[in-house]
């Protein structure tokens, strides 16, 4: 009899997955894998373990294995592990959905036409019941006009475009939600489309399946049920780690006919942290994990303070100092060595010092996604062009500065170097003059505004100015004059872009031009802080941004008073300080998701990022109530709770 070890305890789950990936008898599966269980490793090993005959057969018939990951970074890692073998089509969910529908122009046009007519009819019905002269009335009129114009122009579109990782503008561009809806529609309604998918993919594997958008996941489940035995749909994930509300809440209950292997181990965290995670989810689904025998111990502490009157900076510094004392780990007093997690990005932006840049650009629907993940093209002018150039100049690195210019400046391309502009100095001379003017800003005003930097870049044509930024330039700037000419010719296009009031954005939110105008007032130094944050090089993160990651030291900050989106989560509700509101209680009575469920999941995700030690800093109007909850529910021992006294000192519970 073979001894079971921590390393082999979950081997049966991996073997089940390999058996499901059979061309002769494909079987769908749902792998339950809690935090730190090696879910992604199981996926990689399943792909690497496919036998030569299977891969040869797939190549012979031009078939592929679809592997859908949650992030581009995960996709890159899996691609590397399978040595970029083209038989594996590794993509994010939006990229995969687009790959299914790209080029189906007539079908897309037909769906859009039907969808737009339905939306217009619904708005008209609401409009007939509404009152004139209100903001809602004006917004409905604008939406009807915008959608009617788009409907009229559908016939002009030769091919639809889409950028999975960016913002999509223009009359031929599809939006993220439309691509997901289109793929879901064709998967369930088009027999021809279904046959194409079946011929292309014997296996579709989805990592972090609990966060896959509900319409597409439901369509995939319906598709699989209709063609069971011809395709394997492999789902990997943990419903307790569902971050976004658009995921399928009852996914684990919808896969009853699937094989359901489960992983028991948590290879990431020490035992005390695993025990806390088990306590958090005990009242949810009851699933429990095991810690590795070679990872005993670990430290967890809760630091409680009143919401009002507490110096948060001082209290959090105290918490770090106390963690250093308790753990004997001096790295707890090094901010760069601690991962601090907040519930919302704006809280991280405030603590990192780039709020003036973050706040305006995180609101408009057509900007926020790209801005928050670092892919917004107009923002990349600052992060990937100007910032590297300024940094190289400050470091005296002429080689690096020239590399930045060669990569992005039209002045330093071959044509610019040879001829210059209009018989003036060569492009190289013009580039030198532009760089000198740019660096003068940082000499005269050590931290100029982004608007000042943009004006110099545009005036000297150092880099191309994205269309979104051109309306923000001074009227006498050459790039602004160029834009005026373009606008005169492309006025209908900008009507479709709806730059004045982004569609589905409340009138109180800034327009795209207003958002950029406000953001450009931010000091340029905030660009570097923003870039460090979106590239996960800062000590701060959010619940959403760290899923799948791990850190030796984690501090979770729960501060309901400073939470902007109140419906997202409420720690005071979870811990019994506040009851569910009437609307939330009605949802609970109807079996719908509540704030308590969402907050519990977010807490689980953040706590399970910690490998060695974890500090929870909780601000509340009733710290004593939270303390009693934690101790009575056996989440924490009495000596693991530290509470701020009325006189501002701190003490153990």
Name the features.
P-loop_NTPase, DNA 3'-5' helicase II, 653 residues, alpha/beta, DNA_helicase_UvrD/REP, 15 strands
Q: Got a strand count? A: 15
Cα distance, first to last residue? 49 Å
- Helix proportion range: 40-55%
Beta-strand proportion: 5-15%
Binding site for ATP: 33-40
Keywords: ATP-binding, Helicase, Hydrolase, Nucleotide-binding
Protein name: DNA 3'-5' helicase II
Domain UvrD-like helicase ATP-binding: 12-283
Would you summarize the structure shown here?
ATP binds at residues 33-40. With 653 residues, the protein is of the alpha/beta class.
What's the structural blueprint in terms of helices and strands?
Elements: H1 11-20, E1 29-33, H2 39-48, H3 52-60, E2 65-69, H4 72-81, E3 88-92, H5 93-101, H6 105-129, H7 135-153, H8 176-189, H9 191-200, E4 203-206, H10 214-226, E5 232-237, E6 262-263, E7 265-266, H11 271-282, E8 290-291, E9 299-306, H12 312-327, E10 339-342, H13 345-352, H14 355-361, H15 365-373, H16 377-394, H17 398-408, H18 414-419, H19 427-444, H20 450-459, H21 478-489, H22 491-497, H23 512-519, H24 525-534, E11 540-542, E12 551-559, H25 571-574, H26 582-589, H27 595-607, E13 610-620, H28 623-632, E14 641-644, E15 650-652
Question: How would you characterize this protein structure?
Answer:
- The protein is an alpha/beta fold.
- The chain is built from 28 helices and 15 strands.
- The strands form three sheets. Strands 11-10-12-13-9-14-15 form a seven-stranded mixed beta sheet, with helices on both faces. A six-stranded parallel beta sheet has the order 3-2-4-5-1-6, sandwiched between helices.
- Helix 10 links the parallel strand 4 (203-206) and strand 5 (232-237).
- Helix 5 (93-101) packs across helix 8, helix 6 packs antiparallel against helix 7 and helix 8 (176-189) crosses helix 9 (191-200).
- The protein is globular.
- The two termini are 49 Å apart.
- Mean pLDDT is 86; it is low at 480-509.
